[in-house]
Amino acid sequence: TTDQENALAWIPLISYFSTSIQLLHLRLEFAVDKTETKSEFMPQAP
Can you tell which superkingdom this protein's organism belongs to (predicted)? Predict the structure, then answer.
């Protein structure tokens, strides 16, 4: 394979990983928001 073919093969991988990382980041932020609002309303168990 040529270098150009290798570079083209990487493009879908990179876009897939960047998308999944963005989704993961959004899910983590959402989970943090939920736990923060929970701790405001409920006293933390020891």
Answer: Bacteria
